[in-house]
Specification:
This protein is an alpha+beta fold and 275 residues long. The protein contains three helices and 19 strands. The N and C termini lie far apart (146 Å). Bound molecules: 2-acetamido-2-deoxy-beta-D-glucopyranose (2 copies). One 2-acetamido-2-deoxy-beta-D-glucopyranose binds next to strand 13 and strand 17.
Length: 275
């Protein structure tokens, strides 16, 4: 009986707990992230709720103090606001504009004299994906065997910046030293775009097609991939200029014909007069 009582007492004293900790897995550096901690106190009275980022306290709720909420500015993180009720506490934090992963801990403590503590931790990674797939430029639809092309692939702005991989007919192209990716200067939230060129030589003989793919890889865990492809036709018998003949060229031609016919007319007149 005594044992049962102790067990029952233990069950009651351990009835305070964090029931749910909501921390987004990824946070966009351009927007505040919302984190919330839900708990039950049962027989206990709440003394305080604290939020930590890694080891640093960023927020404290102490219902018996005035003001009950205190925000702490920790370098690289800004707590915008917080709101608490009997069984939950939510904070809005502005993530730093760098690709980082940090631990967010919610800690509740009961009133004295015991000040019993319960805590839970979750991780949030700061990242932002672009809206569009990578864009390939400098790829004509039709080339001749042996033609040299300079392609350029640019990714959308993201955090961290994307790595760029080129494939020809599914085969990864190792970059030459001068073909390394270039990263732009940062925009709002630390987002950057990247681009990489690729020199392609069409096969020296025969006809066919090259499938060129550019892949933008956001280096997260797991990586996020996006790609775009172009099809370049290689044709030996067709002169590509034939397809780009324009009105400019045909009007030059008719001007020549006009000149020739004028010369011919003068020569005819001259011959007639000299008779
Ligand atoms: C935290 O720092 C930011 C900018 O440095 C400031 O605007 C904000 O008022 C500070 N918040 C607190 C609670 O001190
Ligand atoms: C490649 O494209 C990017 C983005 O449009 C541009 O800034 C860069 O100058 C281009 N590079 C070359 C070599 O054309």
């Amino acid at each position: 009986m005594k044992f049962l009582c102790i067990l029952l007492l233990f069950a009651i004293t351990s009835a305070y707990e964090i029931t749910q900790l909501l921390v987004p897995l990824h946070a966009d550096p351009r927007r505040a992230a919302e984190l919330s901690c839900h708990f039950t106190m049962d027989e206990h009275r709440l003394h305080s709720v604290k939020w930590y980022r890694d080891m640093n306290e960023i927020f404290r709720y102490n219902p018996s103090q005035k003001p009950p909420i205190r925000l702490f500015n920790v370098s690289g993180i800004m707590v915008q606001s917080g709101e608490c009720a009997a069984e939950w506490c939510a904070v809005r934090v502005m993530p730093p504009p760098v690709a980082t992963r940090a631990a967010y801990t919610c800690e509740i403590s009961t009133e004295g004299p015991k000040f019993l503590i319960a805590r839970q931790t979750k991780y949030m990674t700061v990242s932002a994906m672009g809206d569009r797939a990578p864009v390939i430029s400098g790829a004509p639809p039709l080339v001749r065997p042996g033609d040299q092309l300079m392609l350029n692939c640019s990714s959308d702005y993201s955090l961290p910046p994307s790595n760029i991989n080129w494939y020809i007919d599914g085969e990864l192209q190792k970059p030459e030293p001068w073909e390394q990716a270039v990263v732009s200067s940062p925009r709002e939230g630390g987002l950057r775009a990247s681009w990489r060129v690729l020199r392609v030589t069409a096969p020296a003989r025969g006809s066919g097609a090259l499938r060129v793919t550019c892949e933008a890889e956001l280096p997260l865990e797991p990586p996020l991939l996006r790609d775009s492809s172009v099809l370049i036709t290689v044709h030996s018998h067709t002169h590509p200029d034939k397809y780009v003949a324009n009105r400019g060229q045909s009007s030059v031609l008719s001007l020549h014909l006009l000149k020739l016919s004028l010369i011919w007319t003068f020569m005819e007149i001259y011959r007639y007069m000299s008779l």
